[in-house]
Amino acid sequence: MRNNKKGTTLNRNISVAEILMTPEISMMIILAALCIYTNSVNPTFFAVKNIQIILRNCAFIGALAVGEAFALMCGEIDLSIGCNSLLCSMVFAYTSIVMGLNPIVSVLAGLLTGIAVGGINAWITLKFGMTSWITTLSMQYICKGFATIISKGGAIATLGGCFESMNKARPLGLSWMLIIVLVILLFMGILMQFTPLGRKVHAIGISPEASRIAGLKVNKVKALCMIFSGGMAGVCGVLQNINSLSGSPTTGIGNEFPAIICCAIGGVSTTGGKGTMWGVLVGLLMYQTLKNCLQTLGLNSNMQLVVTGIILLIAVAFDLLKKNFHFGKKGA
Predict the structure, then answer these.
(1) Residue 157 located in a structural domain
(2) Which positions of the chain have pLDDT values less than 70?
(3) Residue 131 is part of which domain span?
(4) Calpha distance 182→169 (Å, rounded)
(5) Which of 184, 190, 186 shows the shortest CA–CA distance to 228?
(6) Distance between CA 56 and CA 258 in Å, rounded?
(7) Taking a C-beta distance cutoff of 8 angstroms, is the pair 241, 247 a contact?
(8) How many CA atoms lie within 13 A of 265 on its CB side?
(9) How far is CA 105 from the centre of its chain?
(10) Domain count, the chain
(11) Which value, to the nearest 10 degrees, does the dihedral of the CA atoms of residues 68, 282, 246, 228 take?
């Protein structure tokens, strides 16, 4: 009986340790403390208007994070999503404003550009056996170069008509851009949790070789994930243009890192095989809340970058600690 009680106590301790080692919980505790402190310094932090601002700002990084999560979960990474979204925004703006094409055609041109970039990333990575971070890092520069060629180094303005109406609308005090991203996130969350695709993505992320032996089409699933990541960069580029009513030559540059941070603090493993869309949503809300906290506290942009980098390190460290913890537990 004494041994059983001791075993039960040990299991309870392990359960608590496991919970605290999850990036979502640990970051939530830190963020809650920071929010309370921020509100004590500036009581308007929890005001409805400020919360609406935080939620509206989730749209663009959220679109990238949803796509990046798929790339990470299948054991790859997409570092081109920021500049891919820039290229997509320029294609969208150019076809809409300069060429005067139908709005639907312009939107499709932007989205298909993102999908094409994702497809090229997948083809090079899987056909030639290159690591995805090299492929997508190279593609980052290619996309930026083509975007600059299209825009000639300047902004393309100004979107009007239905895009202007969409920009000004505030459904539920939010924006159509955010609602579109949330609908996509919800749909992909259901797809990942309740269909064979989700199980395949996680299995391939854990062990591509074992998945191949089990009969899974590893390259096909990985290609789909990377193409989807490119497609979500297209969604981001189009939505950012609608938000600003123009195509800016700096749109999206560097946004791949906030997207990866949202995935990491939302429990998506940076080494593959683990993660959910609900975790990405939590990570996204936490990241934007943290960013708002730092701005409210008056930290300059350079210090915000420092803190953001530290947060990414902590999130990845917790992910690795949790894996080592499970490994040690199995070894015991």
Answers:
(1) yes
(2) 1-24, 26-27, 319-320, 322-332
(3) 58-253
(4) 16
(5) 184
(6) 16
(7) yes
(8) 28
(9) 26
(10) 1
(11) 30
CB 128 within 8 A of CB 134: no
Residue 4 inside a domain? The answer is no
In the prediction, which pLDDT does 159 show?
81
How far is the C-alpha of 119 from the C-alpha of 233, rounded, in Å? 12
Q: What is the pLDDT of residue 101?
A: 92
Angle formed at CA 32 by CA 31 and CA 36, multiple of 5 degrees: 115
136 occurs within a structural domain: yes
Identify whether 165 is part of a domain: yes
Q: Which residues contact 52 (CB under 8 A, 6 or more apart)?
A: 173, 174
Q: What is the pTM of this model?
A: 0.88
Backbone angles phi, psi at 169, to 5 degrees: -65, 145
The one-letter amino acid code at 205 reads G
Reference 174, options 294, 329, 55, 6; nearest CA is 55
Q: What is the pLDDT of residue 20?
A: 57
Identity of residue 160? G
Residues 6+ apart with CB under 8 A from 205: 72, 73, 74, 75, 269, 271, 272, 273, 274
Residue found by looking up tokens 């299991």 in the block: 11
Cα–Cα dist 306/173, whole Å: 32
Taken in order 82, 301, 30, 290, is the CA torsion positive or negative?
negative
Question: In one letter, which amino acid is 263?
Answer: C
User: Of how many residues is the chain composed?
Assistant: 332
Amino acid identity of 110? G
**Helix and strand tally (H, E) in the chain?**
15, 2
> Do the Cβ atoms of 38 and 296 come closer than 8 Å?
yes
Q: For residue range 107-166, list pLDDT tens digits in order.
A: 999 999 999 999 999 999 999 999 999 999 999 999 999 999 999 988 998 787 889 889
What backbone phi and psi angles, to 5 degrees, belong to 51? -65, -40
CB 248 within 8 A of CB 277: no
Token pair for residue 278? 């609900």
